[in-house]
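[job 0412] stage=complex_fold ligand=zinc ion status=START
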Amino acid sequence: MPELPDITVYIEALASRIVGETLERVRIPKPFLLRSVDPPISAAQGKRVLGVRRMGKRIVVELEDDLFLVIHLMIAGRLRWVTAGGKVPGKIGLAAFDFSNGTLILTEAGSKRRASLWLVRGEESLRQFERGGLEVLGATLDEFAERLARENHTLKRSLTDPRLFSGIGNAYSDEILHRARLSPVKHTRRLIDEEVQRLFDATRSTLIDWTDRLREESGGDFPAKVTSFRDEMAVHGKYGQPCPVCGSRVQRIRYADNETNYCARCQTDGKLLADRALSRLLKEDWPRSIDELTWS
Ligand SMILES: [Zn+2]
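[job 0412] stage=complex_fold status=DONE, emitting structure tokens
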């Protein structure tokens, strides 16, 4: 699922193409995508784009007349930029937004339809999408520490909770915790100050480094390979492969239809977090399902 670095790079690519352009037409071959009724989607047509911004893991396109298109890609939603008037791919194509200089296509692979589109009027109507998560890149250490201490959860759960932190999901939370050398099952209120500082630094540097890397990779083109699994990741999706820091094999905790990856030597003093021993934890203090992890 696209997280802060992926969404940021999408937004930059979009902004450079559509800000100042007119949205000429919206085509929605899969009507379930559109979750709002009023104003009608036709109200967006003929309006100029004033800006593009991120809200958590959502993309917001601001149009003239106080209109806002809100796109949530969820897990498998992706964007493409094609020649103006380009065809919407039959099976995976959800919508096309036609501008004079090109067409933005929204696709979603797989059979589960989770991506969504809203058209709302007025800045205050955007509040319904506000989950309250802290934007770590704009936050102080004190604000970060306060968020962590607000609820006593595992670090994995807290980092991926959109009410606590904005834009962080399963992939980057694994990478952040590895960089911070902290266990995914450590409880937030048990962190000492030095660990909070380390987690804060690791969160910031992971998000910044990955945004830079993805930006560089797309090199001004529209981002084409948006995925949660990347070769350069240290532990996420790397079960059984050597940790790039210490060389021991990356471990996993499986739950629902997801897994968390970590390095025992770097993060848990060499302790393996056995699935069975975690059962209570997994019931009570873990993102319960992919939906809980991603609904932000
Ligand atoms: Zn390691």
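The chain is about 30% helix and 20% strand.
[job 0412] exit 0
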